[in-house]
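Homework-ish question, so no full write-ups if that breaks the rules, but can someone show me the predicted structure for this set?
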Amino acid sequence: MLHILRQIARTGIRTEAPPSPADEAHDIGRLSAAVRRVLGRALTIRMVDAGSCNGCELEINALGNPYYNLEGLGIRFVASPRHADLLLVTGPVSKHMAIALRRTYDATPEPKIVVAVGDCGCHGGIFGESYACVGRVSNVIPVDVEVPGCPPTPTALLRGILAAITPRGPGATVPPVGGGG
Amino acid sequence: MDFSPLGLPSATLPSVVPAVRVIVPSGQLVAACRLAQEQGARLVALWASDDRDRGMGTMLRVALADADGLTVLELAIPAFEDARYGDVASVFPAAARMQRAAFDLTGVAAESEDQRPWTWMAAWPIDRFPLRRDFAASPAWEPGQEDYAFVKVEGDGVHEIAVGPVHAGIIEPGHFRFQVVGEKVLRLEERLSYAHKGIEKRFEAMTLADGHRLAGRVSGDSTVAYAWAWAQAVESITGVEPPPRALWLRALALERERIANHLGDLGHIGNDGGLAFGLAQFSRLREEVLRTNLAGYGHRLMMDAIVPGGVAADLDPRQLRAMAEESKRIAREVATLRGIYDEHDGLQDRFRACGRVSNELAVRLGVTGLAARASGVAGDLRCDFASPPWNSLEVRRVVHEDGDVAARVAVRFDELADSLRLVRTITEQMPDGDIRALAGEPVPHRLGLGYVEGWRGPVFCALEAGPGGSIRRCHPHDPSWVNWPVIEHATIGNIVPDFPLINKSFNLSYSGHDL
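A: Not a homework solution, just the prediction itself:
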């Protein structure tokens, strides 16, 4: 136990504003305020992998690391769509996942928000539409915000979630952030 | 491998890992597999191609590996209805799902008892086969629902738990069917293929010049390994040799991919064992590695960094020094964290004897890569076939014997330490020179092979070029294919709440398997 405490003390608090570009410190503050304003409570997210290469999942997982500290912002991932405010969906939607995605959407209570993640979720990406792929997420369920990138950086994902919970028209695209996407 | 008892000649294939091709006459496939198995071979991949346009019917290929390298068995199956080939799964159990997938995609079946679909899930008519050259998809085909015959266990108090394809966490889609008494698992059956994206068909619409982008997206967590395996396959078809610096830069990227994935897994496995502290610490270190990747490669996961002939971009001395410094620092931190994991009784109690795969089982099922090394099977392509730059790096061969979650954790810790050392050595000894050789013309009808030790295990790629730089056929093959079935065995007799921990300790790819 002493080793754990010593390591925690040595590590310190690493949570920070996203690294680059610099103006994104602003986003985290706005995100937190927007969550409280729109939902008045913690935002809950259900993540659905509808057929991705798993690159997007790696970056969504990164949102939980101490640098981005998603839970510290009042946002967390939940185990059932029935507990979720927001669906975070990666694609391309495989034909084999289309029905499961539709059912997950139907099981999510209103009001609900859908964020399509990655180039594949936004427009089918390198896989496109084929005998095996339905392509973009919006071919299956209504999408509120698209976060492009291959995969999008955690910072871009944060900005997408922010865009989704700030009321505006459907189909809004978040500009890509930084490199890596 | 010696096939002379069957009178089968072999011909050398150009490949980084030594490889031969053996043409197997009809009716001799199982005998050839058995002969190979008796000599210690294990199954790498099995796939089929539509060669009716060449008058060859359907070409079935079985890739095997032993201490000599790769052997590709080739069996031409005549193009008439109900043509069957011998059941390779009767020798190599891991072939079962590959054979079912090969039928779903090309329409040629093995003489095996289990004829259930594997890749097919009612998204296209069951009598159409996507990898046939005359296959044409119709927009009228709607995703349907299959009625899959899971094996049921009957008896007093036995009940069934169905999980997925949408999971509670941030993971890929797949279905797990547990037969349970109380909390004890009697049987687990996996149903995969939910992430089937038609990757093999998609390759045929790409070219040798841009196929590395698709190869790098077969399984995102292994993008470097796949891109390298793809590049090897293209280079063996075109006779191109990457310059030394390019190979060292590839090795650097591959070890950084191993480091990032092992860091991520050690955090998640600790978390699944009840130590959230571990996830916080290891995910922090992983993030730091990814940021250094971004600075060096312009991409956090290093996608598209490896291209046929070499690498896409060079690293400058400052970036190399930064990676060496980072490795020293992370190695110190990981040593501290390993001490904490090792001394944490609660964690060790969850890890030990959990999800155990005995050495005997691992050998029989042909388990590969990291999971095999945790069960005493010592294969590592970087040591077994040390091509440049591995032959000047003295990669440490990591082996543990217990085959449980604790052993798979220990393999990761040891490999992580060695990869951090390798990054230091590579950055310090990096040769100067060009980073990319000029592209060459493909030699007609040559089978190109790639075989690279990714963080999860060996990634295999088989490639045939068509005219004018087109791709005739590409089969990328993830080590997860042979390792998925062993999770069913590893879970038997464990309790349901330990399944996430067992599953994570393997951390297999769904996308890489489903294709």
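Now go work out the reasoning yourself. Hint: The radius of gyration of chain A is 17 Å.
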